[in-house]
Amino acid sequence: MNILLLDRDGTIIENIPYLNDENKVKIVEECIYPLRVLNDKGWKLSIVSNQSGIGRKLISMKEVHAVNKRVRDLLLENEIFIDYIYFCPHAPWQSCRCRKPNTRLIEKLLKRYKSIFNEPIDRVVMVGDSQSDIDAAKNAKIEGILLNKMKWLEIKEHLLNYKGS
Ligand SMILES: [Mg+2]
Ligand SMILES: [Zn+2]
Description:
Blueprint: E1 2-6, H1 29-40, E2 44-50, H2 52-55, H3 61-77, E3 82-88, H4 104-116, E4 123-128, H5 131-139, E5 143-146, H6 152-161
Parallel strand pairs: 1-2, 1-4, 2-3, 4-5
This protein binds magnesium ion (MG) and zinc ion.
């Protein structure tokens, strides 16, 4: 089983800081085709996101859930299926263990995949637009890909061509 972990803001939706309105969700155009192909080829997709706006009391849990649902629905319209959306609701000063670059969310997610799907995990890759995404990947000992360094189409090629160890 291959698993692709996606950052949300700035990676699969246009980045709007502390987004609290699901009507403002805009999927990043360039990720649609690559994600659909990867999903078709059996890659499992999940989102791992920092939502410190909750801890900062700028947005509510309910708003984040509504935005996440919208993201899921819009991707589904493009035949892209997101298995799980995990997010950290804490502000940086709360020093939690789930805010990227910490690894709690990634660990929980992989554990969940293992318990739900009766298959070994072959490859896990995290794609994000921030250094904290890459650092989280490094800390969780999985591969990290920084968007901007690699474009979405290249990421797709990279993930499909490399067969793993
Ligand atoms: Mg981001
Ligand atoms: Zn947290």
